[in-house]
Amino acid sequence: MKAVRVLSPTGMLGAGFAQSTVDRGLDLGADVISVDAGSTDSGPHYLGSGTPKTTAAAVARDLRVLLRAAAKAGIPLVVGSCGTSGTDSGVDWVAGMVEDILCEEGLDLSVATIRSEQRADFLKARLRAGAVHPLAPARELDEATVDSCTHVVGMMGHEPIEEALRAGADVVLAGRATDTAVAAAFPLMKGMPAGPTWHAAKIVECGGQCTTNPRTGGVLATIDENGFTIEPLDPDAACTPISVAAHMLYETVNPFRMREPAGELDVEHATYTALDDRRVRVEGSLFHLADQHTVKLEGARVTGYETMSFTAIRDEHILANIEAWTELFDKIFTERVAQTLGLDGSEYTYDLRRYGYDAVLGDLEPASRPPREIGVMLLVRAATQELATAAAKVANPLMLHLPTPDMDYLPSLAFATSPAETERGPVYEFVLNHVVDTRTPTEMFRIDLRKARTHD
Amino acid sequence: MTDQSTPTFGDLALEVRSKNAGPFWVTMELFMRDEAGYALAAAPENVNEDVIAALYAVRAEDVQIFRIPALNVVKISFPRPVSQAGLHDRDVHAGQHHVPLAALRPVSPEPV
Description:
The structure holds 2 protein chains of 2 kinds.
Chain A: E1 3-8, H1 19-27, E2 32-38, H2 45-49, H3 56-73, E3 77-84, H4 88-105, E4 111-115, H5 120-128, E5 132-134, H6 143-148, E6 151-155, H7 158-166, E7 171-174, H8 179-189, H9 194-204, E8 219-224, E9 227-232, H10 241-246, E10 257-259, E11 263-266, E12 271-274, E13 280-283, E14 286-289, E15 294-313, H11 316-320, H12 322-341, E16 348-355, E17 374-382, H13 385-401, E18 414-415, E19 421-430, E20 434-437, E21 446-450
Chain B: H1 9-12, E1 13-20, E2 25-32, H2 35-42, H3 49-56, E3 64-68, E4 73-79, H4 99-102
Antiparallel strand pairs in B: 1-2, 2-4, 3-4
């Protein structure tokens, strides 16, 4: 092949896109459809609990459009980071939907799943072998931290996806993968050069984000031996040299260099040239193969259970004296929790947030305008749900009636809901920010191919 | 000297934004309107590691600054001071933390 055309319909499977986006991509000769289905951006809950952020109906709708398109054009479909976090449960969730849709639509496609969840004993053995290293700002990993995680995934590069495609998969459903590997695997397999391929993969990973109108659907990247050309699939949207170059800034620490399992993308000397008013040509991207192939780990663990309560203040006097009110809340709340539940500060923690005043930025808040109203959110975390809720209920009379110290009557504040308390269940934190030195690029991933009947 | 009549970087920018860069880093960008605005934002006396450290209560040695004249962009990255979605994280996507940066005023209103 002299060039490979990658169709990226959206930045997130389940976010939705127009049928016309995909139709236009096929008309332009797409050779592969790639789509990302995951992210850590919404927090550790999804990895920690192994549940998706997206709703099944939305994911199934997008999958149906893409599976029909892949079957019609006879091109592969690659889905990365299935089920938001790429846990095995996320891969199974998407694979179940794919199976149902293929059956309903009468489509005969070979489907490969690639599992990326990691066992604690494997990780501890690699740790003991000195093959696990921290990434800034993390410290050295220890075995107790590995054991504390509810789920650990490894972020695959292009290699396991390429292996599944070579084995004959029409549809690849990958667990956790780098956003770029999903789009890079097929062009690399077809012999496209690494620099332009990885750069194009980074540019298309968020769908229309690299265009002048990010809400209008996907993009098509045409990769060849010298570079790549990028164009939006909505005829009214445009890619400009600025919109494409600026996408390297999005959610990256360093806009010029990006580490992949196999090496590092280097776009320091890339050039961005307008071919016309909506297509951009990119050349000069480099990829430096690393001496050691590495796989990045993501892990999450339970930090406790939370209960939330929310009330609101409109009383002008309390608004004008909100610091004194907060101080009084802290004093009485901690005293009452100790007195009634017998808990000291080591057995529960809480965060009192004053929305409308300084909740979002806290001490960083530069504004000094008086607020019209303040929403007061109390979040309590403890080792069990019962304790968290008990403490939040101790706060209930305060969130209803607490005055400022100089008031000689009890106000009644505005609870948002009844009951005031909402149990949030277990809460999680990300604890791994480490890489594993691999012995082969695929050893940490498990490929399972179900051949289509016609391929037998 | 800075005073309230000096425009902020937010006034001089097309867009100032912030976002998570993975679970452990925050990144933010000043998309300046023109070369004059870029010159102010890129001037080390206006935006440097110590200024960012003071603005966001982080360590100066952890701050990375990228000055990109081709895009009129100054990009700033540093480790997330608060664990993502932890009890004390009030901005899970770090999408509102550009505001202190946007409110910053250049020390000198003239490009240097």
